[in-house]
Every structure is written in structure tokens, then in C-alpha cells.
Amino acid sequence: MAISLTESAARRVKSYLDNRGSGIxxxxxxxxxxxxGYSYVVNYADAVGEADVVFEDRGVAVVVDPxxxxxxxxxxxxxxxxxxxxxxxxxxxxxxxxxxxxESFNV
Length: 107
Known about the structure:
Blueprint: E1 4-5, H1 7-20, E2 25-33, E3 37-45, E4 53-57, E5 60-64, H2 66-72, E6 76-82, E7 85-91, E8 97-98, E9 105-106
Parallel strand pairs: 1-6, 2-5
Antiparallel strand pairs: 2-3, 4-5, 6-7, 8-9
């Protein structure tokens, strides 16, 4: 089981944590929503819960709860800038479909 980060995603998380002055890494999860079933939830992690699974990639801790890990195991997190827009993007090998706007997915 693993969650990985591209160099761009790792730089973004490190930069944000440095500017913020606190935090231990990136917290990645999912929630039921959208037209396809699930959407990603991205936050900065300040602590690790008892049941959390922690991965380390490119010097960044990625914290995931076990229920979400079943749906996102193997996902690569990227950080993409396009013009004035910037966002995390996900390459999840477990998805069987996505909604047209790319905001939600199903497995």
C-alpha cells in the first residue's frame, strides 16, 4: 500500500508548511459526494491519529485514514499550475469512472 507524490506536489506541501510555520505533512482522504460517488479531501496534517496510516515520499509525510486508503491505494498526487489556476490532481489506479468535471470518481 502506498500513496506517492510528484516532485511538484512535494515542493508545494513543503512550501506551504514552511510558510504556515506548523504541520507535519499532507492529509489525504475521500468523502461521498458528487455525481460519481467520491471526491478527494486534501488538508494539511497537524497530527497523526491512532488509526491513521502514514507514508513518506520525497521528504513529505502523507497521512491517510484506513477507510480512505482502500479507495486511493496506489494514487499519485501531483500539483498542477495552468494559467491562474493551480490545484492538486490525482492519478488513482482504482477508479472505474469519473464525472465529466473531474471533481468526483467511482471505484
